[in-house]
Write a structure and sequence with these properties.
Layout (H helix, E strand, L loop, with lengths): L13 H32 L10 H32 L6 H24 L7 H6 L11 H24 L4 H15 L11 H36 L3 H22 L12 H8 L6 H16 L7 H24 L3 H7 L3 H30 L12 H36 L4 H8 L2 H30 L16
C-alpha cells in the first residue's frame, strides 16, 4: 500500500482498474458533450456561426450521442467498480473485458470522426451501415450498433459469470437480469421497416425502455452499492427499495412507454395507458436515499466520502424532479398535444438525464478516486473541499438555468406555434422569432457557460482531491 494521497493502481483490484479506464473515456466524452452543446447553442442564436464548416445538425447529433455514449461508459465502469467487491471473487473473463473496452473506445472515435468529416451527402443504403442511420439519438451506423451489442454482451458475460461463481447478492441478481434487457432492447433500434409509424414504434423502445427503464434499474443497483459504501447502511434496506424499483419498472415503466405513442398512429388506448403510468419510476430511488440517510443517522454512522454521497443524494432528487415531475408536466396527452417537439421537451430531457444519470456516474468518479489514492480521507473538511462543492453548485445552477430557460421558450412555442397557430410553418417561424423564445435561448446559453465552468472545476477537483491528505478514510460499517 502506497502513501495516502498518491495515485497507485496497486490499490485497485482487476475490475476497478478496468473501471478507471472506462471512467477516463467517460470524462473525456462528457467534455465533448459540453463543448458541442455550447457550439449548437451559439448556432441557435447565430445560425451563420460555423455554417458550412460544422453545421448545427452535426453539432446537435454529436452533443446528444456523446451524452448517450459517455453515460454508457460510466455505467459499465461503475458496474466493473463494484463487481469484485460485491461478488467476492476476481472478475471472470477480465482479459476479454479489457479487449472489449479498447474495441468500444476505438469504435466511438471512428464514428465521431465520420460524423465530423461526412456532414452532407446522398442517402444510399450503404450510408446506413457506414455513416449514419438517421434516427435521432441513435444515429450510429449499423456496424457500430452491432459493436455496441457485442460489447454489452461481453460485459454481461463478465458480470453474470462473476456473480455465478462468486457470492450472490440482491444487487448482483438485479444487475444481471437488467443487463439482459440492456443488450436485448437495443436490438429494437436496429429493426428496419419502411412504415414510419412502425419504425417510430421500435425506435421508442430504445429511447424509452433502453435508456429510461434498463438504465433506471442499473442506476438503482449503483445507488444501493454506493449507499452501503459511503454510509454503511444496511443491505436489506437498499435491496428492498431496489426490488420495489424493479417492480415499478415492470408495472409502470413498460406501460409508461405509451406516452411516446400518442402521435405516431398507434391505437387510442395508449392515450390513457401512457398518460397514467409515466411518472412512477423515480419514487423508489428517492425513498431508498431517504430511508438510508435516516438509518445512518439512527445508527450514528458517518459518511466515508462526502462528495460521492452528495452526488448520490443529488441523483435521487434530480431524478425525481427531472424525470418524474418535469416529465409528467407534459406527458398527459391533453398537454403533450401542444408541447411535443418543443423546447419544453428539451427542458425535460436536459434535467432528466442530468438528474437521473450524470449525477450517479460522477458519484462513482469520486468513489474511484478515493480508493485509487489509497482510501484517503474524503469527508467534510477534506483539503480543497471548496472545489467539489463549487463544482456541484455550478453544474446544478447551470443545469437549472438551462432547464428553466428552455421551459420558458417551450411554453411560448406551445402557445403561439401550437395552440394559436395550429402547427403550420407560419406559426413555427413566428414562434421562433418571438422575444420570449429568443430570450429563453439566450439564457439557456448563459446556463451552458456556467455548466461548462462547473465541468472544468469538476475535472480539476477529480485530478487533485485527496492529493495532500494524510488522513485515512473514515470507516462505515454496514450492519446486516
Amino acid at each position: 500500500m502506497t502513501a495516502l494521497g498518491k495515485l497507485d493502481s496497486t490499490n485497485l483490484n482487476g475490475g476497478q482498474k478496468l473501471a478507471v479506464k472506462y471512467f477516463t473515456v467517460a470524462a473525456a466524452l462528457f467534455g465533448a458533450q459540453v463543448l458541442f452543446g455550447l457550439l449548437a447553442g451559439m448556432q441557435y442564436l447565430n445560425p451563420d456561426f460555423l455554417f458550412g464548416i460544422l453545421d448545427f445538425s452535426v453539432n446537435r447529433m454529436v452533443h446528444i450521442n456523446a451524452m448517450i455514449v459517455w453515460l454508457l461508459f460510466g455505467f459499465l465502469g461503475s458496474a466493473y467498480w463494484l463487481l469484485e467487491d460485491e461478488a467476492g471473487i476476481p472478475v471472470v473473463g477480465l482479459k476479454l473485458g479489457n479487449l472489449s473496452f479498447w474495441i468500444f473506445t476505438l469504435a466511438v472515435v471512428v464514428v465521431v470522426v465520420v460524423y465530423l468529416l461526412v456532414q452532407v451527402g446522398s442517402g444510399e443504403h450503404s450510408s446506413i451501415w457506414l455513416i449514419n442511420e438517421g434516427r435521432e439519438y441513435i444515429e450510429a451506423p449499423r456496424w457500430a450498433d452491432i459493436g455496441i451489442v457485442v460489447c454489452v454482451l461481453v460485459f454481461f458475460y463478465n458480470v453474470a459469470a462473476t456473480f455465478t461463481k462468486g457470492r450472490y447478492t440482491g444487487v448482483g441478481g438485479v444487475l444481471v437480469l437488467d443487463l439482459v434487457a440492456l443488450a436485448g432492447i437495443y436490438l429494437a433500434g436496429m429493426y428496419y421497416t419502411p412504415n414510419i409509424s412502425m419504425d417510430q414504434h421500435w425506435w421508442w423502445w430504445v429511447i424509452h425502455l433502453w435508456v429510461e427503464a434498463t438504465w433506471e434499474v442499473l442506476v438503482g443497483c449503483l445507488m444501493a452499492y454506493g449507499l452501503m459504501k459511503t454510509l454503511g447502511v444496511r443491505r436489506k434496506i437498499v435491496e428492498t427499495w431496489l426490488y420495489i424499483e424493479v417492480a415499478l419498472m415492470f408495472g409502470s415503466g413498460i406501460l409508461g412507454l405509451g406516452h411516446h405513442y400518442f402521435w405516431i398512429g398507434t391505437p387510442e388506448y395508449w392515450f390513457t395507458i401512457g398518460g397514467f403510468f409515466s411518472a412512477l419510476e423515480p419514487i423508489p430511488l428517492v425513498a431508498m436515499v431517504v430511508h438510508a440517510v435516516f438509518d445512518a443517522g439512527h445508527h450514528k454512522l458517518k459518511s466515508t466520502n462526502n462528495p460521492a454521497l452528495a452526488w448520490i443524494i443529488a441523483q435521487a432528487f434530480g431524478n425525481f424532479f427531472g424525470a418524474g415531475v418535469w416529465g409528467f408536466m407534459h406527458t398527459l396527452p391533453q398537454i403533450n398535444l401542444y408541447t411535443h417537439g418543443t423546447q419544453w421537451t428539451a427542458s425535460h430531457g436536459h434535467f432528466a438525464f442530468f438528474g437521473a444519470y450524470v449525477t450517479m456516474v460522477i458519484a462513482y468518479f469520486y468513489m474511484a478516486i478515493q480508493k485509487w489514492r489509497g482510501d484517503v480521507y474524503m469527508s467534510g473538511n477534506v483539503i480543497g473541499a471548496w472545489k467539489w462543492k463549487w463544482a456541484l453548485a455550478l453544474l446544478h445552477i447551470g443545469m437549472l438555468m438551462m432547464t428553466m430557460a428552455l421551459l420558458i421558450s417551450g411554453y411560448e412555442q406551445s402557445q403561439i406555434e401550437r395552440a394559436i397557430g395550429g402547427s403550420d410553418w407560419v406559426a413555427y417561424f413566428t414562434a421562433q422569432s418571438h422575444p420570449w423564445f429568443v430570450q429563453g435561448m439566450q439564457w439557456r446559453q448563459i446556463g451552458g457557460y456556467i455548466f461548462a465552468a462547473g465541468f472544468v472545476l469538476l475535472v480539476w477537483d477529480l485530478m487533485t482531491i485527496g492529493r495532500r491528505e494524510t488522513r485515512p478514510a473514515q470507516i462505515a460499517t454496514a450492519v446486516e
